[in-house]
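We were asked to recover a plausible sequence for a given structure. The inputs and outputs are reproduced exactly as logged, with field labels preserved.

PROBLEM: sequence recovery
POSITIONS: 427
GIVEN STRUCTURE:
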């Protein structure tokens, strides 16, 4: 359900864009719950060449409300050379008229179709597969998020951010054209019943890639707060390299002496930081909280919020909290699909990291560079549970589920395990 250690200082300043409405899509968003179901620094993150550097944009209130023609002029002028300005007919052609069998998925903002962009469709455009997102533009909200996406992704380029190829703004239609990510979203791999289990090493690789994307956003003098970090917004290429997508809720960080940005609360249940939900005060630490929730998803194979489970197990953060303190307890909540193929120390360290990230006090949450270093260190650990005789943990008479709860049986390792059917994993 969508609701809305030494870090090297960035070497280059980046200019905030001034589009009053472009980066404040929340101004007209519905409130929480009202939308449908959204160590030292890592060297390559702080290299000057990779620091975001925004050009100053000057979209006005009138251009936001103006006709698509006027807006197209503004966008074309601003993003000439960076983004292609597609016509609807061109995107119809690329997607076989948005054929059902080209549908990749559907989120709160509309459907996403696979397409193929032919060489010569636009000057300088190489032939390539693409993902075309059609925004559901009922109300101003869709348009604002569309515009925020164009403005953020039109300027931000990083290996761990999905590449925006272009956009289409024709009459009421609003579309976005992205590089095609062959393995879809992390959500599909982690939670879908039929999906093959993502190995421990792959989960770590994805976590590190996503962390680098987030570190890039946070790592500037004037950070971008992503605000929608979750499994469905982490897209995967053929080698499981992670890229962040969906910048419709992104927001420029606080200016001057301000410690936070005040906004309407947007995001996704289960991922949004409690202080942000309660106060609307947004900081980069809100993203860190969401990152911690995704780490918990990696460990457990469970969703941030799963209403189909017993009440005390619905919120992943609440359910896992008592188990993150020790390796012994951690075993009880690990994704049973690992079948022991995970590092015991690594799981413990990832659990501790997740715990810090989801601290109730935002100040206790680590920064992205430290998170990356911890995850990279975990990558080197090889003490797999299965070879250390610490697997299985599931008693014979229980199903393949990592449920732990009151009044349930304990197995030989001290994990209480539900002798009930695994809860369905549905979105
Ligand atoms: N660039 C892409 N390449 C390949 N598949 C994509 C791409 N972008 C999106 N998809 C697919 O489309 C699905 C829907 O994406 P979308 O971002 O619209 O919604 P969502 O993230 O699932 O939900 P929400 O609206 O809450 O963000 C994704 O889960 C993914 O499977
Ligand atoms: Mg998404």
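RECOVERED SEQUENCE:
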């Amino acid at each position: 359900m969508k609701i809305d250690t030494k870090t090297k200082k960035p070497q280059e300043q980046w200019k905030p864009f001034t589009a009053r409405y472009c980066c404040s899509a929340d101004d007209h968003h519905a409130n929480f719950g009202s939308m449908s179901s959204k160590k030292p620094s890592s060297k390559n993150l702080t290299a000057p060449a990779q620091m975001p550097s925004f050009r100053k944009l000057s979209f006005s209130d009138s251009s936001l409300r103006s006709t698509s023609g006027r807006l197209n002029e503004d966008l074309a002028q601003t993003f000439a050379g960076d983004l292609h300005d597609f016509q609807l007919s061109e995107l119809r052609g690329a997607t076989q008229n948005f054929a059902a069998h080209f549908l990749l998925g559907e989120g709160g903002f509309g459907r996403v179709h696979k397409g193929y962009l032919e060489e010569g469709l636009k000057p300088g455009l190489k032939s390539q597969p693409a993902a075309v997102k059609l925004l559901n533009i009922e109300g101003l909200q869709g348009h604002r998020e569309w515009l925020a996406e164009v403005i953020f992704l039109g300027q931000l380029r990083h290996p761990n951010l999905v590449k925006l190829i272009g956009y289409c703004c024709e009459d009421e239609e609003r579309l976005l054209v992205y590089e095609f990510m062959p393995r879809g979203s992390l959500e599909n791999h982690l939670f879908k019943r039929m999906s093959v289990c993502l190995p421990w090493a792959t989960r770590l690789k994805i976590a590190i890639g996503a962390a680098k994307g987030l570190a890039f956003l946070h790592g500037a003098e004037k950070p971008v707060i992503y605000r929608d970090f979750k499994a469905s917004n982490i897209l995967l290429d053929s080698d499981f390299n992670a890229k962040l997508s969906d910048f419709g809720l992104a927001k420029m960080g606080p200016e001057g002496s301000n410690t936070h940005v005040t906004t309407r609360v947007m995001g996704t249940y289960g991922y949004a930081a409690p202080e942000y939900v309660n106060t609307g005060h947004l900081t980069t630490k809100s993203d860190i909280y969401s990152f911690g929730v995704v780490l918990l998803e990696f460990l457990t194979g469970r969703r941030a919020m799963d209403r189909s489970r017993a009440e005390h197990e619905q919120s992943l953060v609440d359910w896992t909290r008592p188990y993150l303190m020790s390796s012994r307890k951690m075993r009880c909540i690990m994704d049973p699909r690992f079948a022991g193929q995970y590092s015991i120390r690594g799981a413990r360290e990832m659990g501790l990291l997740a715990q810090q990230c989801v601290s109730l006090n935002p100040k206790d949450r680590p920064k992205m560079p430290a998170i990356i270093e911890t995850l990279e260190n975990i990558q080197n650990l090889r003490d797999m549970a299965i070879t250390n005789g610490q697997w299985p943990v599931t008693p014979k008479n229980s199903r393949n589920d990592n449920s732990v709860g009151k009044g349930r049986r304990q197995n030989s390792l001290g994990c209480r395990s539900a002798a009930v059917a695994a809860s369905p994993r549905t979105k």
